Predict the 3D structure of the following.
Amino acid sequence: MFLAQIPATPQLPPLPEGPALDRVRGPIEIPAYEPWQIALAVGCGILLFGLLVWLFLRTRKKSTTALSPYDAAMGELDAAAQLTTEDDDRFAVLSSGALRRYLEASLNLSFSACTSEEFLRSLKVDTRFDAGFQSQLGEVLAAFDRVKFASHTIRPDERTQLTDTVRRLIEQSHHEQSEKGDSQ
């Protein structure tokens, strides 16, 4: 009795035919990083390493001790005399530059934008230099100006004489400054 009252369960329709299971592959392996990602990371690493090396070398250069104006001027003067034996114009530029930089650095003078005549006129009122120093300085600067601007040639004995005069001027100025520094 009870069986007759339960309705029959309907049957599901059959499934359509699908692909064959013999061609199904296992899971596909996905690499953690693509080759372009690896190349980008290596490139950034090289750039970072280069930046660190550059910063290290830059700070190392800054930490070197600076030469005194006197030592720097003497070194420049020696280099000008040795390296420019055939080039008079370059000799005049380097030698007068050494003298000018020494006077600017050690005596706090500013004449890098002045001509030699303007600088000599400004020294007339400066009491730190006697007339002999000023006249020698004027002669040396005039000789350098003749070489630089009038294409005057220098004989080897004149070159030696100019170098010695510039050296004496720098030494005289240096000794006067050190004596004034000791007396203060």
Notes: The CA atoms of residues 44 and 184 lie 58 Å apart. The chain has a mean pLDDT of 81. The helical segments are 2-5, 35-62, 69-83, 88-107, 116-123, 131-150, 156-183. The chain is about 65% helix and 0% strand.
